[in-house]
Automatic annotation (TrEMBL):
Organism, scientific name: Astatotilapia calliptera
Domain of life: Eukaryota
Keyword Disulfide bond: yes
Alphabetized UniProt keyword annotations: Disulfide bond
Protein name: CHCH domain-containing protein
Biological processes annotated in GO: mitochondrial translation
Length: 122
C-alpha cells in the first residue's frame, strides 16, 4: 500500500515537471548551484559618539577665540570620551565576530572556497 502511494506521488511529480508537450514547466536561467564567494559588504556603522562633548568644546572655543588653554577642561573631557568609545568599540569587535547569527563575508567566502560546490547540477 505504501509503495503504491509512493508511485502515485512520483507520477504526479513527473507529470508536473513535464508540463505541456513534455517540456518542463520551470526552466532555470542559471545553474542551480551556489557560488564559491560571497559579496563583501561592510556592516552598517553605528551612531557617532561624543557629540555632546565635541559641541561643548566648540562652543568654548568660540567664546574664547579658539584659545586652547581656556578650554582645557572641555578638551580633556572630549579626549576621555573618545578613548572610552574606542575601547568600547574594540571590546565589542573582539566579543563577537558573528553578527546576529551570520558569518562575516570573509569567513563565509573562506568556508565556501574550502568546501566548493560540485561542478555539475544534481
Amino acid at each position: 500500500m505504501a509503495t503504491q502511494g509512493g508511485i502515485v506521488f512520483q507520477e504526479k511529480v513527473s507529470r508536473l515537471l513535464r508540463g505541456q508537450n513534455g517540456k518542463p514547466v520551470l526552466k532555470p536561467n542559471r545553474a542551480l548551484v551556489l557560488k564559491d564567494a560571497v559579496a563583501n559588504r561592510k556592516p552598517k556603522k553605528g551612531e557617532a559618539s561624543c557629540i555632546t562633548e565635541m559641541s561643548v568644546l566648540m562652543a568654548c572655543w568660540k567664546q574664547n577665540n579658539f584659545v586652547d588653554t581656556l578650554c582645557s577642561n572641555e578638551i580633556n573631557s572630549f579626549y576621555m570620551c573618545v578613548e572610552k568609545a574606542q575601547a568600547d568599540a574594540k571590546n565589542k569587535a573582539g566579543q563577537s565576530n558573528i553578527q546576529g547569527g551570520r558569518l562575516p563575508p570573509k569567513q563565509a567566502t573562506a568556508l565556501l572556497k574550502r568546501y566548493p560546490n560540485l561542478c555539475k547540477e544534481i
